[in-house]
Design brief:
By secondary structure, this protein is an alpha/beta fold. It has helices at 12-18, 35-49, 88-109, 119-128, 151-160, 172-177, 180-183, 222-232, 250-259, 296-303, 317-320, 335-347, 349-362, 368-384, 386-391, 396-399, 401-406, and strands spanning 4-5, 23-28, 53-58, 75-78, 113-117, 136-139, 166-169, 186-188, 208-213, 239-244, 266-270, 284-287, 308-311, 328-330. Helix 2 (35-49) packs across helix 14 (368-384), helix 4 crosses helix 5 (151-160) and helix 8 packs across helix 12 (335-347).
Length: 416
């Protein structure tokens, strides 16, 4: 990736060329291999091509590089204080430091709007912009009903989110979790997809591979997937399981592999060197999550034409998969049902081919163009309402409904 710059390093020629549409700043916890980071890279690249000045601000160290590729015209600003597991007092001090450095960055960059991603970063962004006139749109990227942030972060979210200009979620279910006063200026925008490269189907392999991808955390349900695979592995000796990703549950999952006797059949190789590298060896994809905000990797598998199975967890899979048409949906967290679905798909090449063909076709609904437009319209609504935003002295939670309407702009109507 080209163009990653420190806060003081600005490219005047690029800024002058693309400043006509306005300046959008994204706020992210980091530049790693997560789903939110992937989505921001797609949206930022799309917006900069449409004439916007785009800056991505991340709590990473200055030498950090993004896992995903950005257009050289996108300015990357790393301000340190990456989130990490630390003692309670140190975490609190680092959170205060993140608020301070983000506020400094925004004062220097002077964006027209801030688009913040992920709950803790959203809270930090709202605190950092206290007293400033820049509107902030917060985006929830997970399942706010199921994800536990702890009492303090939950209280802060409830108190601070009404001060945001607007709220973006990926599903209507997630939007409905929030109070009606926030939904009045909310946008439901699904995630875009860039299909990963897949292996040449004309080159058959002696063994076939079931692939799962995600952070090695309880949410992703890889323990459930291992148990389901263990049930049918003896009757399918030509199939193996590969779980790509990294996280806090690695040791526990490795122990589970040993306990289930899958040492020769299941692997945890870590994070792929390149985005989407997992797809090149996938004959079947499984998403075993207990809950999701969307399920980016499931959509990538569908777009790549990989036959897919997913738990019907809240929320996201049902937005993408119609059971028996472009994939298989299984009742959430039911290991026997997942094992049965795996066996059914593994035993039936014709079924895999039919579902893969329809999967690729169905994913065309989520091509980047219309979704970038929805984000662009959201940013335009926030910028157009900035004058009203500046003049309002009362709490936005009780009076912000008219900001978009007063500007003559209706909220974006994204593709669904």
């Amino acid at each position: 990736m080209k163009g990653q710059k420190g806060l003081s390093a600005r490219v005047a020629s690029d800024a002058g060329r693309i400043a006509a549409r306005g300046h959008i700043a994204f706020a992210l916890p980091g530049l790693g291999a997560g789903g939110a980071e992937r989505v921001v890279s797609i949206i930022a690249n799309g917006l900069v091509k449409r004439g916007w000045r785009v800056t991505v601000i991340a709590f990473d160290e200055p030498a950090s590089r993004s896992y995903y590729e950005y257009d050289p015209a996108v300015e990357i600003v790393t301000i340190g204080y990456a989130p990490a597991r630390r003692p309670s007092i140190e975490r609190t001090l680092r959170t205060i430091a993140r608020i301070h450095v983000l506020r400094q960055a925004l004062r220097r960059l002077k964006p027209d709007v801030v688009l913040s991603f992920l709950t803790r970063t959203n809270v930090v962004a709202l605190l950092a912009t206290t007293g400033m006139t820049v509107p902030v749109v917060v985006s929830e990227r997970n399942n706010p009903e199921a994800q536990n942030f702890g009492r303090i972060w939950s209280v802060l979210r409830a108190k601070l989110y009404p001060s945001a200009f607007g709220l973006v979620t990926m599903t209507q279910d997630a939007m409905d979790f929030f109070p009606e006063k926030m939904r009045r200026r909310g946008w439901v925008i699904p995630n875009p997809v860039m299909p990963p490269a897949v292996q040449d189907p004309t080159q058959p392999s002696a063994t076939k591979t079931i692939v799962a991808v995600g952070r090695l955390v309880p949410q992703k349900g890889f323990d459930l997937l291992l148990r389901a695979f263990a049930r049918i592995a003896p009757s399918h000796p030509d199939w193996n399981l590969v779980i790509w990703g990294e996280g806090e549950e690695r040791a526990a999952l490795e122990q589970e592999i040993v306990r289930l006797g899958l040492q020769e059949r299941a692997r945890l190789p870590g994070i792929t060197a390149q985005p989407g590298g997992w797809a090149s060896g996938a004959d079947l994809f499984v998403m075993s999550s207990r809950y999701e905000g969307w399920g980016n990797v499931l959509l990538e598998a569908l777009a790549a034409g990989i036959p897919s199975i997913s738990f019907d967890c809240p929320w996201g899979p049902r937005e993408m998969v119609k059971d028996g048409v472009n994939g298989l949906l299984v009742r959430a967290e039911e290991v026997p049902a997942l094992a049965a679905a795996l066996s059914k798909m593994m035993d039936d090449p014709a079924l895999r081919e039919r579902l893969a063909t329809e999967a690729r076709r169905s994913a065309e609904r989520f091509t980047p163009g219309p979704i970038v437009t929805a984000w662009e319209q959201t940013a335009e609504a926030a910028i157009a309402g900035k004058r009203s935003y500046q003049n309002e002295s009362q709490d936005l939670g009780s009076g912000a409904k008219g900001l978009v309407g007063a500007a003559g702009i209706e909220p974006a109507t994204p593709p669904v």
